[in-house]
Amino acid sequence: xxxxxxxxxxxxxxxxxxxxxxxxxxxxxxxxxxxxxxxxxxxxxxxxxxxxxxxxxxxxxxxxxxxxxxxxxxxxxxxxxxxxxxxxxxxxxxxxxxxxxxxxxxxxxxxxxxxxxxxxxxxxxxxxxxxxxxxxxxxxx
Length: 141
Known about the structure:
- The protein has 4 helices and 7 strands; from the N terminus they run βαβββαβαβαβ.
- It starts with 9 loop residues before the first strand and ends with a strand.
- 26% of the residues are buried.
- 33% of the residues lie in helices and 24% in strands.
- By secondary structure, it is an alpha+beta fold.
């Protein structure tokens, strides 16, 4: 096994609206990355196993960067992600009032793209493409 660090030519990133409560930040992040893991299989690594042979679920094979920005930054990033056709997941403010997957999807479907009140966005793709999508965002504190 090589001791060289693994470098990725791709990036997984989550952009959160800066005015979210701490519990909302965690909830939104968890929901958003689950979308990437389910639809972009190459981001998921191999299953884990401890020293006693107990198996654990696989996780992402690379770090997830979490950033924050204003409502305007999020809207602009969403537009750039769409323009670049990058795999993406969205979380809108309406989803805080729903309690299940069906109602979540209905809430998003009820709003035109330009009218989405985004509180979170996850994107995956080439490092430079993701960096361009997230222009203006800053690392989450």
